[in-house]
Amino acid sequence: MSNKHRYEPSDYMHWVTDNVDTFVKGEQNLVACVYCIEIYETSVFKAYHNCLFCDKCDVDALMVVKHSPLIEMSDEDRMKKLEEWHKKGFTPIPKTAK
Ligand SMILES: [Zn+2]
């Protein structure tokens, strides 16, 4: 069974995993970091275990915009989506429910 199928379409893990091939080496790539909640251009290629790493925070939560759902969104919607993914991926689970 392929792991890809367990991802929801809203789950960013799909686009930050096994994504080294989406980065064009030696060129500026528009990338989005779910950890930094930032979209920026970079030619710095950092990867480990087939996953791209963010040049700014060194977290493997980096996706190439062109190869993600962000490409079809407005700038405003991109930031909203990144924030949503960030909350989902990096917010610690609260110890007590409200
Ligand atoms: Zn980052």
Q: What is the C-alpha radius of gyration, as a whole number of Å?
A: 14 Å
Let me know the largest β-sheet: 3 strands, antiparallel
- Whole-number count of domains: 1
Reading side by side through the largest sheet, how are the strands ordered?
2-1-5
Structural class: alpha+beta
Secondary structure: number of strands = 5
Written overview of the protein:
The protein is of the alpha+beta class and 98 residues long. The chain has one domain. The chain is built from 2 helices and 5 strands. The protein has a 3-stranded antiparallel sheet, with no helix packed on it. Strands 3-4 form a two-stranded antiparallel sheet. It is globular. Bound molecules: zinc ion. Zinc ion (ZN) binds at residues 33, 35-36, 54, 56-57, 59.
List the helices and strands and how they pair.
Layout (H helix, E strand, L loop, with lengths): L12 H4 L12 E5 L4 E5 L4 E2 L2 E2 L9 E3 L10 H16 L8
The structure holds zinc ion.
Zinc ion (ZN) binds next to loops.
Quick summary:
This protein is of the alpha+beta class and 98 residues long. Helices cover 20% and strands 17% of the residues. It has one domain.
Relevant terms:
alpha+beta; 5 strands; two-stranded antiparallel sheet; 2 helices; 20% helix; three-stranded antiparallel β-sheet; 98 residues
